[in-house]
Amino acid sequence: MANNSQYMWWVIGGIAGLVLIIISMIAMWNKKENLGGKSFALDIRPLFRDSDIETMKSFDIDLSNYNTVKSNADKIYSRLTDKDNPMPCDGPWPDSDIQTFKQWMDDGALP
User: Fold this and answer.
1) Which end of the chain is more exposed for a tag (fewer CB within 10 A), N or C?
2) Strand, coil or helix: 39
């Protein structure tokens, strides 16, 4: 009986540990969602068209590269919001895309 009791406590401890892991994962997910959860890979990179990327490479700015966009985010945002000389040159982004870019910056420019 002592072995069964020990086994039962071992199983209960394992289940409790699993529950804590799941709760932690849910909390991290909620924190990301509350911050807006904007990431370069999922939210920012898709905003840049292939033609935008190729054009900006001639200015040594690779819009497909996270580190390049992060380090130039203020300049890019400035151009996106410049009413006289917007980027891209064939027409401004929709306000919702500009807000997404700004939120990504404000949230810490996650990869």
Assistant:
1) N
2) strand
